[in-house]
Amino acid sequence: MLIFAHRGASGVAPENTLRSIRTALDAEVDGIEIDIHEVDGKLFVIHDRWLHRTTSGQGQIFNYDYQYLRSLDAGDGEVIPTLDEVLALVAGKCTINIELKAVKNLTLLFSCIDDAINTTALLSNDILFSSFNHRLLHAIHQQRSDFAIGALTACYPLEYAKFAEQLNAYSVHLHVDFISEHFVADAHKRGLKVFVYTVDELEDINAMKQLGVDGIFSNYPTKAKSHIAHLNGNGN
Question: Which residues are 6's β-sheet partners?
């Protein structure tokens, strides 16, 4: 079972910052999940469109320019990173799951990714785009089928994972509250990986392993890795 660090190691460092990502890399995770918004012609790594929860700013992120956003404290003196900074840090070390929050310009997105592939150890196979915006995922697949896509849902669909198969997705990402053996079996039958968010409690990790999911997103990747190693008989 793969471990993805949710928003970096957000349980122990400010989420979606270079510090949380370095912490996740130190934990030798299989993947790191981040969130991006497109603002002022740049791709910022931040979860919310409102600034007050994770930064020293107020108001909506779209009302400000690059210079102001970079001046904010994103926790413990960290700045809001840009996607290119994160890619340079993660390149060649693990998978990077980029959740698309508010991205309209796919040319900008692809240019950022391609620049990183050309200048760092990043490979196209290291990239996984995910989103609740399934039309955006469809557009990505139509334009760049070389990138894997992960279809996010926070519900329990009538036809299980069929929606993800229709998107030609690599994976389906389901909330921990809605996962079931029937959904996992259906997704695997369709050739999809099943990744579950957000899994922090040991009892939930046990349940995910028993269900046979392919990976989990955790705010505490070190704890999750240690527990999975214990379950596999490789830990004390």
Answer: 33
3-state DSSP call for residue 48?
A: coil
Active site residues: 6, 47
Structure tokens at 219: 């705010």
C-alpha torsion sign, points 218, 221, 227, 230: positive
Residue whose C-alpha is closest to residue 228's, from 31, 219, 216, 18: 216
Closest by CA to 79, choosing from 148, 17, 131, is 17
C-alpha–C-alpha distance, residues 109 and 161, integer Å: 27
Q: Is the pLDDT of residue 236 over 60?
A: no
Do 172 and 197 touch, CB atoms closer than 8 A?
Answer: no
pTM (2 d.p.): 0.97
- CA-based nearest residue to 100, from 53, 55, 60, 147: 147
Task: Supply 158's token pair.
Answer: 């009538």
138-193 residue pLDDT tens:
999 999 999 999 999 999 999 999 999 999 999 999 999 999 999 999 999 999 99
Using DSSP's 3-state secondary structure scheme, residue 2 falls into strand
